[in-house]
Design a protein that fits this description.
The structure holds two protein chains of two kinds. By secondary structure, chain A is an alpha/beta fold. Chain A contains ten helices and twelve strands. Chain A has an eight-stranded parallel beta barrel with strand order 1-4-5-6-7-10-11-12, surrounded by seven helices. Chain B is globular.
Chain lengths: 251, 192
């Protein structure tokens, strides 16, 4: 049986791991390769490395880091942050990334999603969507949640599927950093609407939240950062708990 | 010398790195002479069947591959290209395995992406791997089950997780990304 995936996310700044709470207030902790390996050994199904200071000058550092991760890691990983062209994608995939994640660039240039998909295959295209529930409507935000757009989440994910996205990484800004659980109702709505996998993100605080994301939220995978990062939840314990709750997981 | 067939497939680096972790530095090549000399060959693949076949034909690899006599391991699209025909772009493939590649009926999410179990293991390729061990998959097309099937996986329907005929081996999952179980399978292939 296909299992539900647990995906720790590592935010990277200048080659080191950090995690923002509500996208601000960054805290430093650890080497991405060491941490990634530890997560893989503990049973993480995939990893996401998000470069949050991806400027043009820093690109080379990131490529070197991706190369080092690829050499050391034996599970799939996604790299995101500041990707705005087919060339960026090509460089990251050549360095050994399995998938790339794009966010703002997809909103600004939706054709980029199709270009990447047709050149490298949909399987490597994760589109990250940050959205906030404002007066009942879910609006898409850009630049780490700083810029509001006119796009509605549900229209956007349907369009992304047509453009050739391979997976949707949906972060609820209302839930991110709260540790009160994922946006399960909205997750289920978008999961039913599209046939590509949906990764739940934002709000993980305890193991029960992951069960809800997979049952009520119908998510295919769940991503979290700080609960893993600060060892509030151990991946091994989480997966054992999920298995007890009849959620198919890889043990 | 272990060779990886270089034909613009997406996961070549991942396969190379996986071999590096096992202490092997493979040669990436699409040179016919070099491939003929290789002790073992890995035929990776992520991408689209029609485009991949076109490239193989341009390099005359479509004639070479079915005639190779050393152990060869196809991975993912590599497996599908070693079959007879793929529904992806209605492509005639290499015909190593008399098997058809079909598109998943999308009653569940397609692509089949993530970790799933392999069972009915029937080959030294799986030495040391237990029934129902997990492998990492990403694919929208599958090879049917037939007499060459040496492992199965179930998603929407049962399909060939691995195929074998003479010196030709192929797996639909990504051993290079399947943690320690995948590493064991690569080691087993290298020890054949």
């Amino acid at each position: 049986m296909l299992t539900k995936r647990i995906i720790p996310c590592l935010d990277i700044k200048d080659g080191r791991t950090v995690k923002g709470v509500n996208f601000l207030d960054l805290r430093d902790a650890g080497d991405p390769v060491e941490l990634g390996k530890r997560y893989a050994d503990e049973g993480a199904d995939e990893l996401v490395f998000l470069d949050i200071t991806a400027t043009h000058e820093k690109r080379k550092t990131l490529i070197e880091l991706v190369n080092r991760i690829a050499l050391n890691l034996n599970i799939p990983f996604t790299v995101g942050g500041g990707i705005s062209s087919v060339e960026d994608v090509s460089a990251l995939l050549n360095a050994g990334a399995d998938k790339i994640s794009i966010n703002s660039a997809a909103v600004k240039h939706p054709e980029l999603v199709s270009e990447i998909a047709s050149r490298f295959g949909s399987q490597c295209v994760v589109v990250a969507v940050d959205a906030k529930n404002i007066n009942v409507a879910w609006k898409v935000f850009l630049n780490g949640g700083r810029i509001e757009t006119e796009l509605l989440l549900e229209d956007w994910v349907k369009q992304l599927e047509k453009l050739g996205a391979g997976e949707i990484l949906f972060t609820s800004m209302n839930h991110d950093g709260t540790k009160n659980g994922f946006a399960c109702e909205e997750l289920a709505r978008i999961s039913d609407m599209i046939s590509i996998p949906v990764i739940a993100s934002g709000g993980a605080g305890k193991p029960e939240h992951f069960v809800e994301a997979f049952t009520k939220g119908k998510a295919d995978a769940a991503l979290a950062a700080s609960v893993f990062h600060f060892k509030e939840i151990e991946i091994k314990d989480l997966k054992n708990y999920l298995a007890q709750q009849q959620i198919p997981v890889r043990l | 010398m272990i060779a990886i067939i270089d034909y613009n497939a997406g996961n070549i680096q991942s396969v190379r790195f996986a071999l590096n972790r096992l202490g092997i530095e493979p040669v990436l090549t699409n040179d016919i002479e070099q491939l003929q000399k290789a002790e073992k060959i890995i035929f990776p693949g992520v991408g689209e069947a029609g485009t991949a076949m076109k490239f193989l034909k341009e390099k005359n690899l479509d004639k070479l591959i079915p005639q190779l006599s050393q152990p060869l391991l196809g991975i993912c699209l590599g497996l599908q290209l070693m079959c007879q025909h793929s529904e992806e772009s209605n492509t005639d493939c290499l015909g190593v395995f008399p098997v058809k590649v079909k598109k998943f009926n999308p009653v569940l999410k397609v692509p089949h992406m993530g970790w799933n179990t392999i069972f009915n293991l029937k080959s030294p390729l799986f030495e040391g791997c237990s029934e129902d061990s997990y492998e990492y998959y990403v694919h929208s097309y599958f090879a049917e089950i037939g007499e060459n099937t040496i492992a199965e996986t179930d998603y929407i329907n049962p399909f060939s997780a691995a195929l074998k005929k003479n010196n030709f081996y192929a797996v639909q999952f990504h051993p290079e990304k399947s943690s320690s179980v995948g590493e064991q399978i690569l080691k087993n292939f290298l020890a054949l």
